[in-house]
Design brief:
The complex is a heterodimer.
Chain A (H helix, E strand, L loop, with lengths): L3 E12 L2 E12 L3 E5 L6 H8 L7 E6 L2 E2 L4 H5 L2 E4 L11 H11 L6 H9 L13 H13 L5 E5 L7 H16 L3 E6 L2 H7 L2 E6 L2 E7 L8 E8 L12 E8 L5 E8 L3 H9 L3 E7 L3 H18 L1
Parallel strand pairs in A: 3-8, 3-9, 6-7, 7-8
Antiparallel strand pairs in A: 1-2, 1-4, 4-5, 9-10, 11-13, 11-14, 12-13
Helix pairs in contact in A: 3-5
Chain B lengths: L8 H37 L3 H12 L1 H7 L10 H28 L1 H5 L2 H6 L7 H28 L6 H28 L3 H25 L24 H22 L24 H28 L2 H4 L2 H4 L1 H6 L2 H43 L4 H4 L5 H34 L5 H4 L1 H23 L9 H12 L7 H5 L16 H23 L7
Helix pairs in contact in B: 1-4, 1-7, 3-9, 4-7, 4-8, 4-9, 7-8, 8-9, 8-10, 9-11, 11-15, 11-17, 15-17, 15-19, 15-20, 17-19, 19-22
Classes of the chains: A alpha/beta, B mainly alpha.
Chain lengths: 307, 538
Amino acid sequence: MEENVLEVSKLQKNFGKFKALKKITFEIKKGEVFGFIGPNGAGKSTTIRILLGILRASGGQAKIFGQDVWREAVGVHKKLAYVPGDVYLWPNLSGGEIIDLFLKLNQQKHTVKTDELIKQFELDPTKKARTYSKGNRQKVALIAAFSTDAAFYIFDEPTSGLDPLMEEVFQRNVLQLKQQGKSILLSSHILSEVEKMCDRIGIIRDGQIIETGTLAEMRHLTRTMITVVTKLPLGQVAQLPGVHHFKQELSAQNENRATFAVDSEQIGSVMAQLATYEIKTLQSTPPTLEDLFLRYYQKKEEDRHGE
Amino acid sequence: MENSRFKQTGYLLLFYLRRDWLLIVGWLIAIVGLMGGAAAKFDNLYGTHKAITAIATTLKTPAMVALFGPFTAKEPYTAAIIYASEMVVFMGLFFAIMNIYFAVKNTRAEEDNGTLELIRAHAVGQLSPLTATVLELILINLIVGILAAGSLEFAQMTGANSLGSWLFGLALAVFGMLFGTLALLMAQLASNARGATSLSYLVLGLFFIARMLTDVKNPDYTWFTVFGLIEKLAVYSSNDWLPVDYMLFLTIVFGAVALIMNTHRDVTSGLLPSRPGRKTASFFLANPFSLVLRLERTSLVIWLCSSFVLGISYGSIFGNIGNLIKTNPAIAKLMGTAAVEAGNRNLILNFAATLSVIFAVIATIPAQITLLKINNDEQRGWLEQVHARSVSRFKLFFSYVIVALFYQAACLFLALLGMGLAGVNTNDVVSLGRFFRAFAGYLPILLVISGITTLCVALLPRWQKIVWILPIYGLFSMYFGNLLNLPQWAKRVTPYGWVNRVPLEAIHWGNVLLFLCLALGLWLLSYLLYASRDLVEN
């Protein structure tokens, strides 16, 4: 039987007249990694802050482990770990002190796992937080969260200050949690990050959830950018279903070079066709969040015209 | 001069002025209003020869010298001369505080929040931000000084003259610059804004205590106490400009040193060394309460020691104050030995009662700072992760409140203890225990004041700074209440005025109980409001 770790229904938040959240509804199942994506200012952090009991909802309901996030905050937080997008730390405490404090605030201890994580993330825990860069402050919060034994983890744009190597370490640890059957809410505006790790995705924009589902279910919304150089002329590629904005150019060596976008669901057949032209180089750029939105709204327009 | 170190200074100055203009106007109204308002009242207060002679006698007593500086003018006394000697120390203090505020705000605080980095990344000279701040301080001081002088001219007190009014206004401006550049220097030494502010106030406090001690013991030494320079002006009597020259000299020295230091350090670092921290947290650091205590550790030590030293300094002059035979031999001769002793005792206790209010106001300051941090730390984003842990708002809120209460109680206690210990040493008519009547008298009212502060923290997070009115007005009404003949209600409007003159009078236990209940009610109400609202977001 699947049970829900998080249940949000018709959640609303108003700041004065401004409606930051307009009745959003979604849920996260036990053992699921849920990607929460949307552009800056869409309401991701506001939602998370309500889930943490820092902000009070103006309407609707949010429950974690079946408990109300506002009234039973302390109980909920016992089994929860959180990493904010912008980590601010007390400048005159050292990183090591802060990690331990965060653990103790949840009645947990500095373990072998904590030391291991400090090593993995290459953090110097003796330095005062004043001297840490944004990435290092983020590491402090990540180490504290990963070494907390919790049932539900919330990461709010956790890699915005990390270098690619550390992003890798982060992703490895998230996958480990996933294998242990933990539930995770990962908020991000980087689609590729979410793609790698998440089972399901919720897209938020202007305070509204516009789509939830698995990535496969959303394939119809995404396009991949392809730049290809082939030995033989490219011929009929432009007419293939799912290919858009086809542009051919002649390069200096008289090569056949083209750039175009492919609907993610058609990529297999397009690739098969390309292979017959003897590919020299091929570059594919994953779809960005903006592409996804553009497509989403285009599709809505088309649907409306179709009616 | 493409690569001048001072490039764009002028533009930055305009930018700073535009950003700070409302604050500048606020300080300007407060200072000029206070000086001009008091001046307009003085002819009424001290219109008769009798009133002037009486106040002059009072101002010559050691207790008054300790508060206002020595009364050195020669007869005939005028209302203007009385005004000058009553106002000069307090106005000097006000100018010093204003300058420390602007100096730290525009240098170290800008560095802390990262805006300086943005500015320096543009085509701006290395020394431009600091120089622009110096220029801004010069402008602020000049404007306030000139308007203050103008208000004195306008008030036309009996015995006032233009030379004296301008000397007063301009000397205050230079005195302000002196402490402004001093604060700029401290901003180079410390590695953050809070550190720079505390260092500046520490030095100001040391100078102030030194001037008080030298004034009472031997005024010739006051020249060396820096703060004491402002007392040597002899405004409206001999109008002496020499102290202003000394102040200018010191200002230039401090400013130059600050500029040199600024070129020798990196942005966001201080010249004082910072040690590496612990690898793991100590056993002690484990909950919100110990967290707040740990964060306050250094400043707690400084405040407690300063309070004790302040108490000792004031207590050490009790021997000079409680000595009628020395201060007024004619009266002493008329009274019997027993009566002289009773008189001495009365003098000391009266002075101790005045000092107790000062100590209470001072003990309020660190407590307010701590309570306002409930929102300030939140705004800095430091508490977001604490809230996400299994820590209730109740625990967090009362962790700050309890530390604040400890500040109040400990500062008040140590100041009184210092005063008592030093006082008992220099006189033998008042026992140590008697001074602690002030503790029982003032602690409950301090609790009420912290209750009002928490209410502001919970209810008006954006405007919480207005609670600073409490200690500022408290100090003002205490310092000037009697001298300006303020009406009774004006003294009663501040909670400090609700306490009777302990330790001279007996403790009013009924009030103590009432205030305790009031404080408790205010805290609980504040907590309920705090627990049901959104937290302040950064």
